[in-house]
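User
Class, as today's exercise, I want you to study this protein, comparing sequence with structure tokens, and judge whether sequence predicts the tokens.
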Amino acid sequence: MHQPLEHKDGGAVVYLSLCELGDARHAHVYVAEETPVAFRYDGFSHGVMMASPEDLEDFATGFSVSEGIIDASGSLRATSISRHDDGITIDVSLHARDLHRYLAGRRVRQLRGNTSCGLCGVEDLADIRRPATRVEPGKPLDVDLIRATLAKLRQWQPLSRQTRGAHASAWVTQQGELCAVREDVGRHNSLDKLIGSLVRSGSRPPQGFCLITSRCSFEMVQKAVAAGFPTLVSVGAPTAHAVRLASAAGLMLYSLSRDGEPLLFTSPKVSELEVWPELAS
């Protein structure tokens, strides 16, 4: 029998009555919270995302970078967070130049974005295209460094350890030091929160790479490029479109094989047309 949820440490604990072989057992089980988060820019509604209700100022900044509303070297003028019974509203105030650009190219996401989707509310194929951007070349990563970082990351994932229902995104130095980690029930959201935390710190992160504990779809590459990351490492496999975008941007893209072996899919020395010659036609 389910009892009321009790919020604790970013998750929620629910009391479940479990029966096994006729012997009733009771256990405390943590489940991750998932909350509608609405974004408004200077009074204009932009979209609603399902997310973990923590690190919301980081989320506001990182989401704004990923959406192309501000760039990674910019900032938000002000952020106000309102919590309601049915969700959370983030009101963002933009600097004049960013507001002018936002209004000029404004589109409204008509649907609610769920935790696994990156295109909810996009009405036209042109809306998913981004301006051609090249990131600074990254340095090749040592295979043992990637393995060691993955093992260390688990200690930085309290929500995932408690619930087994959250993704993490991390910024790692070339020496394997974890500088920042953000978790969320949505993989896109965790990366937005990481980007936001780095942008809000006011200083460019040390040279290194971004590590994500999820699969790598094209939106994850788009976000990494928007943030100016030189290298992205994903635990799950990339899609073909993700590889194409990474190649076009000069982003070094690593992913783990079935055996846990880090594989390099792209290199800044290889152009998109060399990998996908059919795009030239």
About this structure: Helices lie at 56-66, 96-104, 143-153, 158-163, 187-200, 218-227, 240-249, 272-275.
